[in-house]
Amino acid sequence: MANASPRSVLVWDLPTRAFHWLLVALVVCSVVTGKVGGNAIAYHMVSGCAILALLLFRIAWGFVGGRHARFASFVRGPAAVLAYAQELLAGKPAAHLGHNPLGGWSVLGMLAALALQAGTGLFVDDEIATQGPLNKYVSGATAALLTTIHRMNAKIVVALVALHVAAVVFHALARREDLVRPMLHGRKHWVGDADHGHASPILGAVIAAIAGGLVYILVTL
Questions:
Q1: Is residue 2 a part of any domain in this protein?
Q2: Which of 59, 93, 188, 190 could cross-link to 87 by cystine, CB 3.0-4.6 Å?
Q3: What is the pLDDT of residues 163-195, one digit of tens each?
């Protein structure tokens, strides 16, 4: 196997890649429009709802999606994470076709932070002209608390995004591993066995449509 030549292997299925880049665009939109304020808040609200729909899709896709998109393939216990961290510090980390143990938990952290951000955004009240679509269902005190959490968590989201970008740069410079292009075309060069299990893009489109419909129903209650 040591003399085997690397071959191109499909790792990230189309729905996973589409989710990733749509999320990138929407997070950027949300951050910018949130900072600009004024009339841009309308776009901020729309992008927040779109992010919520994407998150619902990704949670479902984490159970029925392609092999490397499933949570079971990349969420590892503390022992595996610690072992990988030690390998990384020693400069000899094991190669992973999908997410490595640290990367897997960073994915969960990002999803959790974005879910909190989008969820609290449904109830916010800026006490000027903007209220979340579900603000009318909570008390003023609850809305104020959720608005505070929304504003504080925005800083956490930005920090996690910066950490993610730093990790991509680290892999590119220190390990000569390109993580960007595989998320564009879905393929990596790999030596050894590889699980080619991938879910249908049609299934992904159906789940995405259902997620979008659920969010639409939620915000129009």
A1: no
A2: 93
A3: 999 999 988 988 888 899 999 999 888 877 776
Q: Which domain holds residue 46?
A: 7-219
Q: How many domains does the chain have?
A: 1
Neighbour-count burial for 31-48, b at 16+ CB within 10 Å, e otherwise: bebbeeeeeebeebbebb
Question: Could you give the CA distance from residue 56 to residue 76 in angstroms, rounded to a whole number?
Answer: 22
Structure token digits, residue 28: 């950027």
Contact 53, 19 (CB under 8 A): no
Burial of 188 per CB tally in 10 Å (0-12, 13-18, 19+): buried
CATH no. for residue 78?
1.20.950.20
Residue 171 domain flag: yes
Tokens found for residue 140: 């003023």
Q: What distance in Å separates the CA atoms of residue 115 and residue 5, rounded to the nearest whole number?
A: 42
> In this structure, is residue 1 part of a structural domain?
no
Sign of the dihedral through C-alpha 148, 150, 151, 152: positive
